[in-house]
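hey so u asked for the seq, here:
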Amino acid sequence: MPVLDDVFHESAEQFSVMLSTTNMTPVLLGQTNITATILDDDPLPTLIVRLPADALETSGTLTNAGSLQLSAPFEEDIEITLTSSDQTEILSPGALMLPAGQTNATFNLRVVDDLIYDPNQTVTITASCTNGMLDSAQMVVLDNELPNLTVTVSFKPTEGDGTVTNAIRLTSPVALARI
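ran it, structure tokens below
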């Protein structure tokens, strides 16, 4: 029985054979039904995630800005889960279904404008699949807020006053401030 090779990574496949004669006369065998398994010899494809280098915090949804590429197709649809390392900067894209035979897909990136002054943040988007494929890529979210610090002097120190203390008031949230 010939077994044909293909280029698809796939699960093991089973088939059954029933033995009989052409004129349906009894056959003296210990077993007339046989099940066999065909094991796949194609390696697991590699998965590559691609992202833009950076995005402004005010960008909102970047339509089809992320992409996935497989080194070889699958013969069945596969689900790929996409996660973000920092939900305060880029929301997790979720999962996408890559149709059988396809090797490329795109996905949206939803950038969060947090209204807080913080330095530019590097975010990792990871793609994973239950079959073991895994890859990730990074991009930088560029902050758009400016620090807004107000210092209020409520008295006028004079020479010889020694150490003086004064109030500092923040007029907008600051994530990482050094005062």
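DSSP finds no helices and 13 strands in the chain. The first strand starts at residue 13 and ends at 18.
lmk if thats what u needed
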